[in-house]
Amino acid sequence: MTGRAYDRKIARFILGNMTIVPLVPFLVLLVVGAILFSGAMEKSIMARISQTARDHGMMVDSFLNERRADLALLASISSFEALSSPENLETAFGNLQASSGAFMDLGVFDEAGVHVAYTGPYRLEGIDYQEEFWFRKTMATGSWISDVFTGFRKTPHVVVAVRAQGAGRPWVLRATIDTDVFQAVTGEVRIGQTGEAFLLNDEGVYQSIRPSRGKLMEKDPDSDAYVMGDGWAGARVIACRDGVKRVFASVRLTEKPWRLVVVQDTREAFENRMRIYLVIFAVMVAGSGALLGVGYGLTTRIVSRIRRSDDAAVHLEEQLYRAARLAELGEMAAGFAHEINNPLQVMQSELAYMAETVRDVEEGTEEVGMIRESLDQMRLQIGRCSDITRSVLNFGRKSTTRDQAVVMGDFLADVAKMVRSRAEVSGVQFLTEVPENGSRVWGDPSRLQQVFLNLINNALDAVEARHGSCGGKVSVAVREEVDTVCVDVSDNGSGMDEETRSKIFSPFFTTKPPGSGTGLGLSVCFGIIEGMGGRIHVSSTVGEGSVFTISLPRHLEQ
Question: Is Transmembrane one of the keywords UniProt gives this record (predicted)?
Answer without folding.
Answer: yes
